[in-house]
Specification:
Blueprint lengths: L1 H16 L5 H8 L3 H13 L3 E4 L5 E4 L8 H8 L18 H25 L4 H15 L1
Helix pairs in contact: 1-3, 1-4, 1-6, 2-3, 4-5
Protein name: Rrf2 family transcriptional regulator
InterPro entries: Tscrpt_reg_Rrf2, WH-like_DNA-bd_sf, WH_DNA-bd_sf
């Protein structure tokens, strides 16, 4: 999940001014380290969301305008579940119907949630996220 958040943050930031940013610049804005930025951005690059540029003014540049990139594009590039649990209740070897089946049920339920979320994410663009951020900022003032 954190990789999705990093990718979303970076891509909205890159789409905002459409200029190349180094992993160090991006890491300062995201408040994480440049190694994590590079790891996440390599996935985004493989899926055509960013391009890289070498040299003094090098770094990452968004490959398309923010209105052409959806959160589903990011979800597909990062390939992580947004809804998941690292813990399972019950015991699959238990005789109890509830204890033996709940873990599998929750896995199926969370899989369904992720499928439905992917459909919703396909309707949200980076531009829409930026507009929402502006609205949040304006409401704080």
């Amino acid at each position: 999940m954190s990789e999705f958040i990093i990718a979303l943050h970076v891509l909205v930031f890159l789409a905002h001014d459409m200029v190349s940013k180094s992993s160090e610049e991006l890491s300062k804005n995201v408040c994480t380290n440049p190694v994590r930025i590079r790891k996440v951005m390599s996935k985004c690059k493989k899926h055509g969301l960013v391009e890289t540029k070498a040299g003094i003014n090098g770094g990452y540049m968004i490959s398309k305008p923010g209105n052409e990139i959806t959160l589903k594009d990011i979800y597909d590039a990062i390939d992580v579940s947004l809804v998941e649990s690292k813990w399972r209740s019950g015991d699959i070897k238990a005789e109890c119907l509830i204890a033996s089946g709940m873990g599998d049920y929750i896995d199926m339920l969370f899989s369904y949630f992720n499928e439905e979320l992917a459909l919703l994410l396909d309707n949200i663009t980076l531009d829409m996220v930026e507009q929402k951020l502006k609205s949040i900022r304006d409401n704080k003032v």
